[in-house]
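Ligand-bound model needed. flavin-adenine dinucleotide.
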Amino acid sequence: MPTALAFGIEANYVHPADLDLPDAARCNALFDFDTVRNGYGWIFPKRDHFNVGIYRISKGDGASGLKGALARFAAAHPLLRRCRMTEAVGQPIPISTGTQPVGRGRVILIGDAAGLGEAFFGEGIAFALRSAAIAADWIGRTMRAGSAPDGARFGAELRPLMDELRYSLRIAQAMYRVPPAWMGRLGADGTIREALVMMLEGRSSYRSSFWRIARRIPFAIARRGGMAAAPSPFDQDAAGNEKGRGTV
Ligand SMILES: Cc1cc2nc3c(=O)[nH]c(=O)nc-3n(C[C@H](O)[C@H](O)[C@H](O)COP(=O)(O)OP(=O)(O)OC[C@H]3O[C@@H](n4cnc5c(N)ncnc54)[C@H](O)[C@@H]3O)c2cc1C
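Prediction:
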């Protein structure tokens, strides 16, 4: 199967000079899963701005509507309203199905060119670096052994990495199948939140996170009163009021 396609769009929201930020808004990254279907919105605090974006797996809709989704997402967070937005930029992110071809003849592919984005968060930097290191090591070993690298064999070298990515796709399939109205319950579930954070920080494999999340989803959805997700520092208005969302 070829790679699947996702899209990311992002913009920076530059602080006004007099912005008085709560500490939590300076330190906490926000992932909001009830913003778009098949994806999420993020707010990453930086020194003098917030990086704000939307990630969405394409279901035949490509990048259509993403700019509007970013504008609506930002408008829903009072802390961003006083910031100056820079131009939004977007790109496709090819996500791995775990089975896509990555080499032939004298050509091998790494990173996004090999379709090594992971499906749930749309992360690709770590996999681009890991695939580059694997490629350099493999080319060196092959040439020291006196052979010319054959691209058709490179897939075997990337197999462990692609197997890992296959679990990310399974996590995306499990999580993004949940209707948006129930996403808040997943965000409010401690086990799911911890599994996602550990995965993001590279402290657990996608494989082990998949099993933790897949087992937990039915309980999280069934739990009564579970709609209140983590309070978000970005949702505070001037009066300090907050609203619950499907946030991590
Ligand atoms: C909005 C957005 C936010 C993202 N956020 C994250 C994130 O927070 N964390 C994360 O892990 N991933 C993130 N990603 C995904 C990540 O950016 C990519 O997966 C990663 O950059 C892939 O690295 P790469 O080196 O394979 O490709 P690229 O970073 O695309 O690098 C390829 C380079 O090759 C150059 N190039 C292309 N064609 C030619 C040519 N013919 N000749 C010479 N040069 C050429 C390009 O200009 C480019 O500089 C995000 C993606 C998007 C769209």
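The domain at 3-92 is CATH 3.30.9.10 (D-Amino Acid Oxidase; Chain A, domain 2).
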